[in-house]
Amino acid sequence: EPTVRTELMEQIPPIAIFLQESRPKFPTAFFEYLMPIVVRYLTDVNNQVRKAGQEALLILLEQDLVAQSDIENKVCPILLDLSAPDSDDEYKVEAVNIICKMASMLSRTTVEHMLLPRFCELCSDGKLFQVRKICAANFGDICNAVGQEATERLLIPKFFELCSDSVWGMRKACAECFMAVSYTTSPEVRRSKLSPLFISLISDTCRWVSNSLFANPSSAGLYIREDGTLSIRPSTQDVNSKSCQPSNNLTLIASSTSAA
What GO CC terms are in its UniProt record (predicted)? Predict the structure, then answer.
């Protein structure tokens, strides 16, 4: 029964912690018996079981309970299979999400050598916009995980692609993580490559893309009015509207920002 397998997955992390604390008595129990179950359930036919397995895996990684050999020989290979071009759509979306979440918990070498090539492929996935959206939303975290050299050599070109995506929500996700991406690059790359890209996004025909590059009104007290001007008064408008209307107020935004 799927409910039994789901419940089992929820018990794996506390059992693993107990085994870790009692390691002299159970030196190999987790690696021999429990870890194979976690890996197997990542491909379970039931989505709730898979979700429970993914959550268990993240907890185990966060607690540093998974051996490096298991990460490289068991976990990463199954995620690469699930995120392959010919993989089932639902499995692929889940695999991309877990890859992005676990990147910050793994060593830089593991991420760069095993996961980064597939992440770059997924950024250009022409079949599923959901896959590209996950990549865009987590782009800053991936950059931080692999460091400056890999970011500038492999990720910045993919970031340019995502910032030019035909889906406005993709460009909005890029705008929201723009600062995080820039932190990982050199001043020269920021000046020569990211600055023109920033101007391109702030000039986007979708105002929800361009507005995303401004400060969060809840923390900064700033917001973009409907006429495009920057205000320091508390917003009475819902700037999180789901619709996307072209903005013709970019000059006003720029001038107001300069004045501030």
Answer: cytoplasm
